[in-house]
Amino acid sequence: MPGDELLASPDIVSTRAITVHAGPEAVWPWLVQMGSGRGGAYTYDWIENLLGLNMHSATEILPQFQNLKVGDVLPMGGGGPAMRVAVCDRNQALTFRSEDHRWIWSFGLYPVAGGTRLVSRNRIAAPHARPWTRLFNRIVMEPGSLVMERKMLIGIKKRADGMLTAS
Predict the structure, then answer these.
(1) Is residue 152 part of a domain?
(2) Among 25-39, 80-94, 97-111, 122-136, which is the least confidently predicted range?
């Protein structure tokens, strides 16, 4: 995926995807407005906010956040790592890179029959993690990430497909 080359030897890689029944041009606006104090993350806001991330998932396209470009910062809350846009290829690919260069988060939009395959990939370097940290990541962080990222992908799908309902 675009951005994979930014972290050649990650310790952790997760790739998750969903098929959206709309074209890439309907998915893109939801991706570029993501972030704390912007469009949110389309996950469980209450969980994000327990972590102090100030996420409030938008239910509409926010025009003021549609001009994302390489070098811009993706807000991740006050204590989160600063993420910068590394790849911004409209309707095709969006990649963020943490300022410490240990995390790459990429989105690919691939046209398929009847819509778009939206792929989210995380590549993380944790070269000096202690064994107990690796165990914690495996037991707590990875399942938590799966739940949150699944909710995010479903949230984007519902929004892009125009199926969002108040909940």
Answers:
(1) yes
(2) 122-136
Instruction: Measure the CA–CA gap between 92 and 118, rounded to whole angstroms.
Output: 10
What is the CATH classification number for the domain harbouring 120? 3.30.530.20
Task: Look up the domain containing 56 and give its range.
Answer: 4-160
pLDDT at position 166: 44
What is the rounded distance in angstroms from the CA atom of residue 116 to the CA atom of residue 93? 12
| pLDDT tens sequence across 1-43 | 999 999 988 888 889 999 999 999 999 999 999 988 887 878 8
Distances (CA, A) of 44 to 50, 81, 84, 111, 135: 10, 19, 23, 28, 25
